Each structure stands twice: as C-alpha cells, then as structure tokens.
Amino acid sequence: MEINETINELLQASTDGTITTAQVTKAGLHRSVLQKLVDCGELYRYGRGLYVKSSAWEDDFYLLQRKYKRGIYSHDTALYLLGYSDRTPAKYTMTFPKGYNTPSLKQENITVKRVVPKNYEFGIIEIQSPSGNPIRVYDLERTLCDILRGSGSDIQIVGEAMKRYAASKSKDIHKLMQYAEQLRVKPKVLHYMEVLL
After folding, report:
1. Which residues are in the AbiEi antitoxin N-terminal domain (predicted)?
2. Is the predicted pLDDT of residue 152 greater than 60, yes or no?
3. Using CA atoms, how far apart are residues 138 and 112, in angstroms rounded to an integer?
C-alpha cells in the first residue's frame, strides 16, 4: 500500500503529467513499479527514463525536449512557435551542439541540425509551448539568421517572416546584425533589410 501511496503522491505532484525513473528511485522505490504502471495502462513510456500519465494531454514539443535536453527548437519550428509562420511543421527541427549523439534521435520525426559549440548557446529563450509548458527555442533574430544560413527552407516562409520582422515594433536590428556577423550571413540579412526597411 505504501508503494501505491508514494507513486500517487509523485503523480499528483507532477504538473506536466510526467514521472521519471530518477524521481521514483529518489523516493526509495524500485523502478520496476513504473513497468507495472505501464502494464496496467496508467502510464506509457515516452523515452528512456521518462513516463507519461495515460490521462495527460500529450505535448510533443515539451516531451521531445524533456527527452533530448540539449535540443533547442530552431528554423521553421522556431518560426512557428514564435508566431512568425502559420505553417505547422510536419517535422520538428531541433539544433544540437556538434558531437552530441544519441542513437534514438534517428528514430524520431525530427530534423536534426548541428552547430559548433560557440554557436549553440546564444539566442536561446524560454517560451510556452502551445499547450502551456516551458520549452527552449532560439529567439527570432537567431532563427532568421539560421534560416538564411541553411538550405532547404521554403523561400516563401523566409520572405514572409522577414517582412513581418521588418514591420515589427519589437525588432532589434543591432542584435540581428550581431548574430548575422557571428553566423556569417550578414550579406543575406543586409539584402533583405535593404529591401524591406
């Protein structure tokens, strides 16, 4: 009975509907209790050491980032999350530092981008996912530079996002130029800004 009480306390304390193996072992329980809860349909395993209540609203943005802590939402996914694209991404794009390698990433429905460590850290902000959970995403200036830097981005989405940015009251051209310099896309950014401003 004590095991069930402890598990229930952990689940009730969970604001996001998740429970981890680490939490269970810290509470002094054997992690096999999680498998029992999966077997009876109360939980399901989302990833290694991460379980979700079956009754919880599934927030893919949040759960993916819980699973891959170093992943930052970027490119078209960041544009969507920041409200600069109406197109829901078919595949989420996440940026990781070069050298970060998890074999299970290949099984996920995500586009993986890798950057050198000095370009990984800057521009990270925390926002709320569409379901209201905290997620990390690159800010707008960084996202625009990333999209101009890479290939494969829809030129229509890029053009629309740049137009919206140029018209925005909260734009930070100084920051955009700093990022453009660091990511080596200054000529492309200048071209867009000359046309739009």
Report:
1. 11-52
2. no
3. 14
